[in-house]
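Deliverable D5.2: sample structural annotation.
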Amino acid sequence: MSLFLSACGSAQKQKTEAIELDRNPPAPAAGQAYYYQHTGPRPWSDGRQDASGGRLVVVPEPKSPNPGLWDVEEHFERADGVQVFQIDPQYRLHHLAIKSGENEIVLRYNPARPLRFLDLKKDKKKTFESRFVFVDPQTGRTMEGGGKYTSEVERRYDVRIVSPAGAYLCRQFIIQTTVETNVQDIRTIFKAEIHSYWCDDIGWFVQEEYDFEPMRQNGQPVQPAYKAVSTLAKYKPMNPDSLRPAEETPEEPS
């Protein structure tokens, strides 16, 4: 007696629909906030200061004079200053302002630099290049110097990241980044490998792992190599005016 039997009594194959996991996130919205547990120096810093602790990313009410762009603020609990990203609904970075005390540096990118590579399909690689100039934050005029931002990005299989905030299905990117600047005849090169995991359901990344090479000026190392990791601990509801997660908001009765 043969044991090779069809469960439905027929050899006809059943058709199954392919599951499409990609679903582009909505445009940023005021009030979004993400609180991370961070270890290591602040990414893209000189690597000398330990910034381990809280990291807050928040989208405040729109105040950009550029229509269609959203401000995204980033604060570190143990590092001074704030970074303000101006991004469009496709999560491309147009301007970056780095503020510390009374000092402010503003970079303008052309073309806008993608943050989460929405058009990159799984198992594909692509190189993104963008030039940037320094802008006077008071006048908006271009200043001396500038540089180039290059990312060689490989999108790997989707992966479920388990974080203190929960488990989330993420797009996985391996990013080889080179930032080159030329200011007053000083050529600076900064390289990093970044493992980035973005979740379309929550709008921002769940985890990022950074491996920075020593920064070099005119070929000589001037800053140490370092590593850092940020992992999502909690996201909205949060109090965007605080670096600490807000208390849970009770559910309204139905």
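Annotation notes: The chain is about 0% helix and 55% strand. Residues 123 and 156 are 5 Å apart (CA to CA).
The annotation will be released with the project's public dataset once the embargo ends.
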